[in-house]
Every structure is written in structure tokens, then in C-alpha cells.
Design brief:
This protein has one domain (3-224). It has eight helices and no strands. It has helices at residues 3-12, 15-36, 41-61, 68-75, 81-108, 116-155, 162-197, 206-224. 26% of the residues are buried. Belongs to the peroxin-11 family.
Length: 227
């Protein structure tokens, strides 16, 4: 197979890869539904069904994912006490999000009472937004530290270590891009979570939700794409 096809196969073999693909389907169909609803209500209904099906399938596929927070903390608790605290708070919020998302999914497919959906949605979204705030802060701190370290390395250039310094700077820049993608995804998902916690005309507007969902999906797509 060609290299791009190999990368696509590897990407779709990951749980996060499938999630970002289906998330793209979900929010593209949301935007198309909004666009064609005034003129093509029959077509809009089909895209609405696609959006709902994609959202429910993502919830089913994320079963058990709340445990990944424990694994993330066990494998990489952070370089400092401050960052470890941020990591604990961020992953705790994410674990609440994924755990209660299971009950939201079950209530929406009729296994649990439908009246629980709103309550589970609120708790899940609150945990999600809580975690995203600390993920964003943590990434911004590491980006700032990376910029500082890059400046220090640039001041040392000019000797025999120029090649190794260039490699180190390249790694810092690559890490910065990944963290910026993470910030973009988390900010976009924060808008979506806020629409559940405190409905308002801006966050709950279809265009805001659609664009936020696609920014999150495509930033995650970039981060998970095989290098």
C-alpha cells in the first residue's frame, strides 16, 4: 500500500482515530442540516438522523474510556508539583465526563429513563469543562516553557553542537504545534460543554456548535495522525 493509505489504516485502527472521523460526520451533518432545513426539509431530516446516529455511536465507542485518566496519571504524572496538580484536576474532570456520559448514552437509547438524560448531560458537561480548563492551562504553561528553552538553545548556537541544538529546537517546535492543537481542541470542546451547562444564544447556535465540533475533530485528527 502507498504511504498515505498506510497512515490512514494506522489512524483508523486507533480508538481516537475512529472517534475523530465519526465526530467529523456528526458536525458536518449538523451544519448541513442547518443549511438545507429552510429549503429541503426532507434532506435536512436525513442529515439530522446522521448527526444523532453519529453522536450515539461515539458514546458507545467511548465505553470504559474514563479509565484512561488513571493510566495517563500513572504513566506521566508531570514534570513538576504544579503540573502534577493540573494533570490530576484535568484528568479528574475528564473521568467524570466519560463516566457519566455512559449513563447519558443509556438514557438516550431507552435503557434508562429518558428523564435522566438532562441531568446526566449536565454532570458530564460540567466535568468535561472543568477538565478542559486545566488541560488548557497545563498546555499553555508547557508552551511558555518551550519558548523559553528554545531561546536559550538559540543563544548557544554557533559551535560544534549546532546540529544537536537544531534537533532539540525542532523537537520543541513540534511539541508546541501539538500542544497548540490540543488547546484549540479543548477550547472548541469547552464551547460545546458550556452549551449544555448554561444554554445561551452564542454557544447553542448551530453554527457555533458545528464549527467548534469540526475544530475539535480536525485538531484531534492532526494530533493522532501517524508521523
Amino acid at each position: 500500500m502507498s504511504d498515505p493509505v498506510d497512515k490512514l489504516v494506522t489512524f483508523l485502527a486507533k480508538r481516537d482515530g475512529i472517534d475523530k472521523l465519526v465526530k467529523t460526520f456528526q458536525y458536518v451533518s449538523k451544519l448541513v442540516h442547518y443549511h438545507v432545513e429552510p429549503t429541503r426539509p426532507d434532506l435536512a431530516g436525513r442529515f439530522k438522523q446522521w448527526e444523532l446516529a453519529s453522536g450515539l455511536s461515539r458514546k458507545a465507542f467511548r465505553t470504559g474510556r474514563f479509565l484512561t485518566g488513571f493510566n495517563a496519571l500513572r504513566r506521566n504524572p508531570g514534570p513538576s508539583e504544579t503540573f502534577r496538580l493540573l494533570a490530576v484536576l484535568a484528568n479528574a474532570g475528564e473521568m467524570v465526563y466519560f463516566f457519566f456520559d455512559h449513563f447519558l448514552w443509556l438514557s438516550r437509547i431507552g435503557v434508562l429513563e429518558a428523564r435522566l438524560a438532562r441531568r446526566m448531560s449536565f454532570v458530564s458537561a460540567f466535568g468535561e469543562s472543568f477538565g478542559y480548563v486545566f488541560f488548557i492551562v497545563g498546555d499553555l504553561i508547557l508552551i511558555r516553557e518551550g519558548v523559553r528553552k528554545e531561546r536559550e538553545l538559540r543563544q548557544r548556537k554557533g559551535g560544534d553542537e549546532t546540529s544537536s541544538l537544531e534537533d532539540a529546537i525542532g523537537k520543541i517546535r513540534a511539541d508546541r504545534v501539538m500542544r497548540l492543537m490540543g488547546v484549540a481542541a479543548n477550547v472548541a470542546d469547552l464551547f460545546i460543554a458550556l452549551a449544555d451547562i448554561e444554554p445561551n444564544p452564542f454557544c447553542n447556535h448551530t453554527v457555533t456548535l458545528g464549527i467548534s465540533g469540526l475544530v475539535s475533530a480536525w485538531a484531534g485528527w492532526y494530533r493522532n495522525w501517524p508521523s
